[in-house]
Design a protein that fits this description.
This protein is α/β, with parallel strands linked by helices. It is 31% helix and 31% strand. A 4-stranded mixed sheet has the order 3-8-5-9.
């Protein structure tokens, strides 16, 4: 809708209590850095250059030694209307080490689904059922303590980090996101989001 996706992400952050903003860049890093320099930012933004891709959480290892109490991690291909301060309050109230934002994902099976027993006896058929699951929304809150588990300059994705923290005995919580949420990493999702915000405008 004529507005870069990263601006949608930043607009949400600007409305929150987050004080320090770090953006990790690798692919097309010059384009992103130039955009940040041109916009009228309300808070200080630090650009972190990944010499090699570090995965969905690896870049945090480059700043984990900073004197922050916790880190709000947002995937840059996610647009949501979730009030981030509500997410932060939930994390703090529950004394979590990691809080994972979880969005509802629906998938319609385009066929009639049959249930039967091992002898082939028919039980039921459900026409084009919709399967609902909670999926990672690309929104996380991470305590200083848990962030120290992330190695520096090593590739690491979020599932590996969460499992590592869980094995270390750290507390991991889930925050369901009922507000509008979309991951625009797929072309069809990007088209839907573009249509939505064009209509809003």
């Amino acid at each position: 809708a004529g507005k870069p996706i990263i601006q949608y992400v930043l607009d949400k952050v600007f409305l929150s209590s987050i004080e320090n903003i770090n953006i990790s860049v690798h692919y097309k890093h010059e384009l992103i850095s130039d955009f940040i320099k041109k916009i009228n930012v309300k808070k200080e933004i630090n650009i972190i250059n990944e010499n090699e891709p570090l995965g969905t959480i690896g870049a945090l290892g480059l700043i984990a030694n900073k004197s922050y109490d916790s880190f709000l991690v947002l995937n840059a291909d996610v647009i949501t209307e979730l009030p981030l301060n509500e997410f932060i309050v939930f994390h703090n109230d529950n004394k979590n080490d990691i809080t994972i934002g979880a969005a509802i994902h629906e998938f319609e099976i385009p066929y009639g689904v049959i249930k039967y027993d091992e002898l082939g006896k028919f039980y039921s058929i459900s026409e084009k059922p919709i399967i609902k699951n909670l999926v990672s929304a690309g929104i996380y809150l991470i305590s200083k303590k848990s962030s120290l588990l992330i190695p520096k300059n090593k590739y690491m994705d979020m599932p590996e980090f969460v499992e590592l923290a869980k094995r270390a005995g750290l507390k991991v919580g889930v925050f369901p996101v009922y507000e509008y949420w979309t991951d625009v990493g797929l072309p069809e999702a990007l088209t839907k989001a573009n249509n939505k915000f064009n209509q809003n405008n």
